[in-house]
């Protein structure tokens, strides 16, 4: 009898332990593959929309970053250097800075030696809306989207985007 009770207790503890350790993704932790990136047509860099208006299918890698977030800033440098060294006709890179101070953004680009034509800094209202609608309150993300704004990959590596070329 004690063995059955002990077994049932151990089984219950095991179930509780495994369910407690499973990660629970909240809505604020980012968008998922298959989601449509909100308001893609309104984001432009250098007077060019992020999504191609011509008939050739193009993808866009959009990386959200801020100077105050070391990880996202380092990833912005990495992606900028990657696309500068190996330009792709099928994928365009855009860095979207979420810095509250435009002067910090400009100085950071100069310090990091990142080309400004692939970057954009959002104003305060756009920044707040972007962080809320795109799930960037906990962590900055990188989204690979197709020409319709549908997310094909979240936080991909350079090796992972190669399969989309």
N-to-C series of helices and strands:
HEEEHEHEHEEH
Shape: elongated
- Contiguous low-pLDDT stretches (5 residues minimum) are 19-28
Under CATH, the homologous superfamily reads Glutaredoxin
Largest sheet: 5 strands, mixed
Task: Provide key terms for this protein.
single chain, 165 residues, alpha/beta, Glutaredoxin, five-stranded mixed β-sheet, two-stranded antiparallel sheet, 18% strand
Quick structural summary:
The chain is built from 5 helices and 7 strands; from the N terminus they run H-E-E-E-H-E-H-E-H-E-E-H. It is of the alpha/beta class and 165 residues long. A 5-stranded mixed sheet has the order 5-4-3-6-7, with helices on one face. Strands 1-2 form a two-stranded antiparallel ribbon.
Describe, in plain words, how this protein is organized in 3D.
This protein has a 5-stranded mixed β-sheet, with helices on one face. It has a two-stranded antiparallel ribbon with strand order 1-2. A hairpin with a 5-residue loop joins β6 and β7. The protein is 37% helix and 18% strand. The longest helix has 20 residues, at 2-21. By secondary structure, the chain is an alpha/beta fold. The protein has 5 helices and 7 strands, in the order αβββαβαβαββα. The protein has one domain (28-164): 3-Layer(aba) Sandwich (Glutaredoxin), CATH 3.40.30.10. The protein has helices at 2-21, 70-85, 102-112, 124-133, 158-161, and strands at residues 44-45, 48-49, 59-65, 91-97, 119-121, 142-145, 151-154.
What is the fold's blueprint, element by element?
Blueprint: H1 2-21, E1 44-45, E2 48-49, E3 59-65, H2 70-85, E4 91-97, H3 102-112, E5 119-121, H4 124-133, E6 142-145, E7 151-154, H5 158-161
Parallel strand pairs: 3-4, 4-5
Antiparallel strand pairs: 1-2, 3-6, 6-7
